[in-house]
Design brief:
Gyrase A, domain 2; four-stranded antiparallel beta sheet; about 10% strand; globular; RNA-binding
RNA sequence: GCCUCCGUAGCUCAGUGGAUGAGAGCAGCGGGUUUCUACCCCGUCGGUCGCAGGUUCGAGUCCUGCCGGGGGCGCCA
């Protein structure tokens, strides 16, 4: 006979809203008991054949040398499931299929609908999280690659903030380095006012290309550019004034794009490369005193173990070049040190493309060697793949250039406006513009976020703006549709909130189960810093609602069903709006 | 050459070591609803989960080796 001590079941964990998580928590003491006091995972999983299946008996029986079906039977006979399950049976080699009782689901739901956090608990251990993302280059156009970094980073910021972590956004803009010699000289040649006009209109690429062309064609210009770099790095005040002008002009442009994109980045989040220049000397000295520096081919380097070059020889991280200049790796070291020692970061996320993977691994490894990056402090490369065109190659404009992000945003909004005008002619002109912004930008963001970030993804206007399938507009529409029910019936949503929800129809149960799984969806999303997992959840939620909407009349139902369904719809809208919000997507009330 | 990531339906993509029912959307075909806005539902078509081994009670999932594709591999950032 198995005895379970009630004290083992933590009250708070028991109240976790996800029935699967609750079930797992409920079973843990029993499984530990079976296992001689050692914890054993009950392995509770969603199931197509029931609400949940418990698979842990198989692994445990194997370990104990027992029959898995017998062990599963013991779980049933313990009576532990009687409060939560309407039905439970041993199936196959030793699975337990569990169908939750409606009263159990209703009670879980009753607790959650009153909760402003929609059932999602604040993190038990709040951390300081630094998110490094976006990172455009001064005097260069933002392109579609910056979209990915910006959108993924923005979502990770919102997710961590929601869980109660202290999030520090850092926009590591490219505002330092050799190109600034030529850029400043080009600025002087054209005159500040001319440049200011051009840059404020977003012609950053033109400016950069002109400077580059001049640099290639003119030796005189090259000399001036080189001298100017020396002046810049030497701290010449007149040069710094010009440099600041360039940075400011670019930043104001970036900020306009961020506003249009509806992301959280502001000027306060700027943490460009220039900030770390004064820190590099100190970092270099600390590498030296730690005994990590080696001289190699005239450069000062660190050899992190495990990295090899094309000849199979150890691959160095170059701290200082032959000419005595610090390298970008040194700058990134300084950056880590700054984040760990000044900002007191527990977790650093680098939302940067996958081509930087090896570089970042080397930087992190050198930081560990130097003792700057010590567990439990973590640095994680949140890498992402390329955006591809229909030809499955890197997306290019017709002219063969990389696509300007600003143009992409404008086109998204224009296309959304056309679609809305066509599908909802009744909507007012001003309202249409507002909604077109939400839908266009939302569609763009969602298509970027909804696939596994590490993979390349294929950009397709028609697919991302479709009202069917796993798209932003479909999810926004599910939300708008719920708002529409209340609007038409002239019912205040707040009036049904926290009303008791009755779960009779399978569609109601399914929807309720999904709503209760919101905290788990967020947890698995953050486990791997993968917003697409939250996207999948929101899509499934919207699909579940559509089924419910189809099968369960709301306004025409008699009481108490009518109020119950209104409450269920209202809570669904809340979770839809909130989860889309965590993805950085706004949910309009009509579209 | 070495390292690394990717390879799942015609297309775009999901898939926590769990059931010889591997899913979704789109596209195609056939039907049903057409009511609270564009939806939704049912059926059908479509898969050697790149290939071959291995580990495991159980592998799309873990390991090894191949094949194909992308990226990286010293003084740019």
């Amino acid at each position: 006979m198995v005895r379970v001590r009630a004290a083992c079941i933590g009250h708070n964990r028991w109240r976790m809203s996800d029935p699967l998580a609750s079930l797992s928590t409920l079973l843990e003491p029993l499984f530990a008991n079976f296992n001689g006091g050692v914890p054993a995972d009950p392995t509770v999983r969603p199931s197509d054949r029931a609400d949940a299946q418990i698979n842990g008996a198989l692994a445990l029986a194997k370990r104990l040398g027992e029959n898995p079906r017998d062990l599963a039977q013991q779980v049933l006979e313990s009576g532990i499931l009687t409060d939560v399950a309407a039905d439970a049976e041993v199936a196959g080699p030793g699975f337990i299929n569990v169908t939750f009782s409606s009263s159990f689901l209703e009670s879980q739901l009753a607790a959650v609908v009153k909760d402003k956090r929609l059932g999602v608990a604040i993190a038990a251990e709040p951390k300081i999280v630094v998110v490094d993302y976006s990172a455009p280059n001064v005097a260069k156009e933002m392109h579609v690659g910056h979209l990915r970094s910006t959108v993924i980073g923005d979502s990770l910021v919102r997710l961590h903030e929601f869980l109660g972590h202290t999030v520090i956004r850092e926009n590591h803009i490219g505002d330092w380095g050799r190109p600034f010699g030529m850029l400043i000289e080009h600025l002087l040649d054209l005159g500040e006012d001319v440049v200011s006009d051009g840059l404020s209109q977003g012609d950053l690429d033109g400016f950069y290309k002109q400077a580059n062309t001049k640099f290639k064609d003119s030796e005189e210009f090259q000399d001036r550019a080189r001298d100017r770099v020396v002046l810049l790095q030497g701290g010449d005040e007149a040069t710094l004034v010009l440099w600041r002008r360039l940075v400011e002009m670019s930043n104001s442009y970036f900020q306009r794009v961020y506003t249009k994109l509806d992301v959280l980045l502001t000027d306060d989040d700027l943490a460009g490369e220039s900030r770390y220049q004064p820190l590099m000397e100190g970092v270099y000295a600390r590498l030296d005193s730690a005994g990590l520096l080696r001289e190699d081919a005239g450069a000062m380097v660190v050899f992190p173990p495990g990295f090899k070059n094309r000849d199979g020889a150890p691959l160095p991280m170059i701290a200082k070049s032959q000419t005595g200049a610090f390298m970008y790796a040194t700058s990134d070291l300084a950056c880590v040190v700054d984040r760990v020692e000044r900002l007191d970061a527990d977790l650093m996320l680098y939302v940067i493309g996958t081509p930087q993977a090896q570089h970042l691994q080397m930087v992190f490894e050198v930081c560990r060697m130097a003792g700057w990056l010590v567990e439990p402090t973590k640095a994680v490369h949140v890498g992402f793949g390329n955006v591809l065109g229909a030809d499955r190659k890197m997306m290019r404009s017709r002219a063969g250039d990389s696509v300007k992000l600003a143009d992409l945003l404008d086109e998204a909004v224009e296309r959304a406006e056309v679609a809305i005008a066509e599908k909802n002619p009744d909507i007012g002109h001003e309202e249409r513009l507002v909604v077109a912004n939400m839908v266009g930008i939302g569609a763009l963001k969602y298509s970027d976020l909804s696939t596994e970030r590490i993979k390349d993804y294929v950009f397709d206007w028609d697919r991302m703006l479709a009202f069917e399938g796993n798209t932003g507009p479909y999810l926004q529409y599910a939300h708008a549709r719920i708002c529409s029910i209340f609007r038409r019936a002239r019912i205040d949503r707040a009036s049904v909130r926290s009303e008791h929800i009755i779960l009779n129809q399978p569609q109601e149960r399914g929807l309720a189960m999904r709503l209760l799984a919101y905290p788990s969806a967020i947890a698995t999303t953050l486990d791997s810093f993968s917003p697409h997992k939250l996207c999948t959840y929101v899509y499934e939620l919207a699909s579940d609602f559509s089924s419910f909407y189809q099968e369960c009349p709301i306004l025409k139902s008699p009481e108490p069903m009518r109020t119950s369904r209104l409450a269920l719809a209202d809570f669904t809208a809340q979770v839809l709006e909130h989860s889309l919000g965590l993805l950085g997507i706004t949910a309009p009330e009509q579209m």
